[in-house]
Amino acid sequence: MGRSIKKGPMVEPKLQKRISAAVGSSEKVVIKTWSRASMILPDAVGLTIAVHDGRRHVPIYITENMVGHRLGEFAPTRTFRGHVGRGERSSRPRG
Fold first, then answer.
1. pTM above 0.90, yes or no
2. For 71, what's the count of Cα atoms within 13 Å in the CB-facing half-sphere?
3. The sheet that has 57-61: what strands, in order across it?
4. Long-range pairs for 66-69 at CB < 8 Å and ≥24 separation?
5. What is the bridge-based pairing of β-strands 48-52 and 30-33?
6. Which pLDDT belongs to residue 8?
7. Residue-level pLDDT at 88
8. Segment among 6-10, 32-36, 55-59 with least mean pLDDT
9. How far is Cα 30 from Cα 22, in angstroms, rounded to an integer?
10. Which pLDDT band, with edges at 50, 70 and 90, does 2 fall under?
11. 16 Cβ neighbours under 8 A, 6+ residues apart
12. ∠ at Cα 44 (30, 74), nearest 5°?
């Protein structure tokens, strides 16, 4: 369930301030953040934001399709290593 429209989007105030500064300047800078719950606003389109996944910062280039989603959706916290194959499973001893 999403956030109430009456309340508006939740964005960390410090992150919003850094996004505004980056939009105002002409430099391409990567903005580091730990705020995975912050919503992506239209102001951030074209910026690169590095979102912390618990281990490192994952750089994410913000596009128009991402507006309205949360930053954490694009930086997975778990690494999927794959399922065990048929041959590997049958070779282990039973008991």
1. no
2. 31
3. 30-33, 48-52, 57-61
4. 66/40, 67/40, 67/41, 67/42, 68/9, 68/39, 68/40, 69/39, 69/40
5. parallel
6. 82
7. 60
8. 6-10
9. 9
10. confident
11. 41
12. 70
Is 38:70 a contact under the CB 8 Å cutoff? yes
Cβ(93)–Cβ(77) below 8 Å: no
Q: Is the pLDDT of residue 59 over 90?
A: yes
Q: 4: helix, coil or strand?
A: coil
Burial grade of 36 (CB within 10 A; 0-12, 13-18, 19 or more): middle
Residue 37 has phi, psi (to 5 degrees) of: -85, -10
Indicate the residue type of 27.
E
> What pLDDT, on the 0 to 100 scale, is given for residue 56?
95
Q: Give the pair of three-digit tokens for residue 60.
A: 């994410």
Residue 70 tokens read as 């949360």
For the chain, the farthest-separated pair of C-alpha atoms sits apart, in whole angstroms, at 66
